[in-house]
Amino acid sequence: MNNPGLHADGVISIGGIITRGETLQNSLREIVADFARTRGLSQIDALSEYYSPTTRQRALIERAVVARGSFEDGWAHVFVSDKFGEATTHWRKLEDRVRRGVGNPCPLLLIGLPKAIVE
Predict the structure, then answer these.
(1) Which range marks the domain in which residue 112 is found?
(2) What is the pTM of this model?
(3) How much of the chain is in helix, strand and coil states, percent to nearest 5?
(4) Counting Cβ atoms within 10 Å, is residue 95 exposed (0-12), middle (13-18) or buried (19+)?
(5) Mean pLDDT throughout 55-61?
(6) I want to staple 25 with a disulfide (CB 3.0 to 4.6 A). Which of 15, 79, 90, 104 is the partner?
(7) What is the rounded distance in angstroms from the CA atom of residue 100 to the CA atom of residue 40?
(8) 37 HSE (CA, 13 A, CB side)
(9) Are 15 and 3 in contact (CB under 8 A)?
(10) How far, in Å, are 24, 32, 80, 108 from residue 73 at the CA level?
(11) How many domains in the chain?
């Protein structure tokens, strides 16, 4: 978040944050699974065109595939948890911080990207 002292000292006038909106955050697993389905990604080795899972991620993917019933759903679950999980900044976390007063007194422009931006 912005340092309120920078605003008070006249260094910045406004803080701007763009992050995943609530609908996008809530739909990421579905979006990633659909990505895998439309590209025929049905095994770990097929991911190499896009990224290389670590040994730890491979083990998590293998377990999730069994638990979720398909490679696409299992991989999406692991990938989203690893890259876009609750520990990363998204709208709900940002909203909680702003309500606690983080960033005050600096005016903030907050933009949450919706699911609708994904094609």
Answers:
(1) 4-117
(2) 0.79
(3) 55, 10, 30
(4) middle
(5) 96
(6) 90
(7) 44
(8) 11
(9) no
(10) 17, 8, 11, 37
(11) 1
Nearest alpha-carbon partner for 100 in 84, 108, 113: 108
CA distance 105 to 7: 7
**pLDDT tens sequence across 37-54:** 999 999 999 999 999 999
Q: Which two tokens stand for residue 97?
A: 């911080």
Residue 14 has pLDDT above 70, yes or no: yes
CA–CA separation, 76 and 35 (whole Å): 9
**One-letter amino acid of 115:** K
Q: Residue written as tokens 């097929």?
A: 46
Closest to 85 (Cα-Cα) out of 57, 49, 118 = 57
Percent of the chain with pLDDT strictly greater than 90: 61
Which token pair is 89? Answer: 């900044």
Strand partners, 69: none
